[in-house]
C-alpha cells in the first residue's frame, strides 16, 4: 500500500538509512555508497530480481555496482535487520525465502499493530495528514478507474505507511516501518493477485471514512479485516507460485 522508489522517509527519521552521516567527507562518502547499494539490492529482492532463497555473493555485488566491499557489507547488514537477507553458519547470506508459515506469522502481527495504528490515528491524525490520506486514496481510485492496478509503491504513497505515521506512536512506527515493512512489501509485490487491488481500494475507503469520523474502534476493526483478506489472497497466490515452481523443477529433472 516517492517518489523515491525504495527508500522510505518519515518526517522524523529515515528508517532505511544505515547510519547518520558522519562529519568527515570519507565517512559521508561511505554512508552514501552504502545507502545507494542498499536501495538497489532492496529493490532487486522485493521485486524478485534476486530470487527468494538465492545465495548472495558479497564480492559479486560489490563488482556489479562498482564499489568496495565495505559499503556492500554495510548494506547487507541493514538488509538482515529488515529480514530481507538471512545469514546461516557455513551457508552464508541468502535472500529471505517466502513461506506460508512466515507469511501467516507476519500478517498476524501486522493485523494487531496496524489495527492499533488505525485506532490511534483516529484520535491523533491532523487535518493536513487526513487531507493527504484522502488525496492519496482519490489518486488510487482514479488510477483504478483507468485500469491501473499497481499500488505497491512505498513511503508517502503507501496507504498503510501514511496511517502508521498518523498514529503518532514512534515505537509502533519503528516496529512496522523499520522491522516489518520491507518484508511485507516483498510478499505483497511477488504474491498479490491482480484482482485484489479493486477490493483493497474499496476497503481503504471505508477505513479512511472511519478515521475521518474519529471512530477508532471501527477503523481498527476494518483494518484488521482488510489485512486478513490480504493474507488470504497472498497465501493462495504463494501456494500457487510454489506449486508452479515445483512442477517446473520436476519437468526439468525428467528432461
From TrEMBL:
InterPro entries: GntR_C, TF_FadR/GntR_C, Tscrpt_reg_HTH_GntR, WH-like_DNA-bd_sf, WH_DNA-bd_sf. Residues 31-98 form the HTH gntR-type domain. Keywords: DNA-binding, Transcription, Transcription regulation. It comes from the Bacteria. Signal peptide: none annotated. The keyword Transcription applies. The keyword Transcription regulation applies. This is GntR family transcriptional regulator.
Amino acid at each position: 500500500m516517492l517518489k523515491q522508489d525504495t527508500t522510505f522517509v518519515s518526517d522524523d527519521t529515515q528508517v532505511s538509512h544505515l547510519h547518520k552521516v558522519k562529519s568527515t567527507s570519507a565517512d559521508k562518502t561511505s554512508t552514501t555508497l552504502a545507502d545507494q547499494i542498499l536501495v538497489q539490492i532492496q529493490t532487486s529482492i522485493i521485486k524478485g530480481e534476486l530470487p527468494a532463497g538465492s545465495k548472495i555473493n558479497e564480492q559479486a555485488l560489490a563488482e556489479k555496482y562498482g564499489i568496495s566491499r565495505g559499503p556492500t557489507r554495510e548494506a547487507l547488514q541493514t538488509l538482515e535487520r529488515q529480514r530481507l537477507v538471512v545469514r546461516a553458519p557455513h551457508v552464508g547470506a541468502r535472500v529471505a525465502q517466502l513461506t506460508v508459515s512466515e507469511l501467516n506469522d507476519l500478517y498476524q502481527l501486522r493485523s494487531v499493530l496496524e489495527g492499533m495504528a488505525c485506532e490511534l490515528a483516529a484520535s491523533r491524525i491532523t487535518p493536513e495528514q487526513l487531507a493527504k490520506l484522502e488525496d492519496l486514496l482519490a489518486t488510487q481510485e482514479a488510477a483504478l478507474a483507468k485500469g491501473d492496478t499497481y499500488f505497491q509503491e512505498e513511503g508517502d504513497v503507501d496507504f498503510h505507511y501514511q496511517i502508521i505515521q498518523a498514529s503518532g506512536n514512534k515505537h509502533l512506527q519503528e516496529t512496522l516501518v523499520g522491522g516489518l515493512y520491507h518484508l511485507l512489501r516483498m510478499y505483497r509485490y511477488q504474491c498479490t493477485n491482480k484482482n485484489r487491488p479493486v477490493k483493497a481500494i474499496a476497503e481503504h475507503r471505508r477505513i479512511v471514512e472511519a478515521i475521518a469520523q474519529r471512530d477508532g474502534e471501527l477503523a481498527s476493526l476494518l483494518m484488521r479485516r482488510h489485512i486478513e483478506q490480504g493474507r488470504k489472497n497472498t497465501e493462495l497466490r504463494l501456494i500457487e507460485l510454489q506449486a508452479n515452481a515445483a512442477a517446473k523443477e520436476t519437468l526439468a529433472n525428467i528432461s
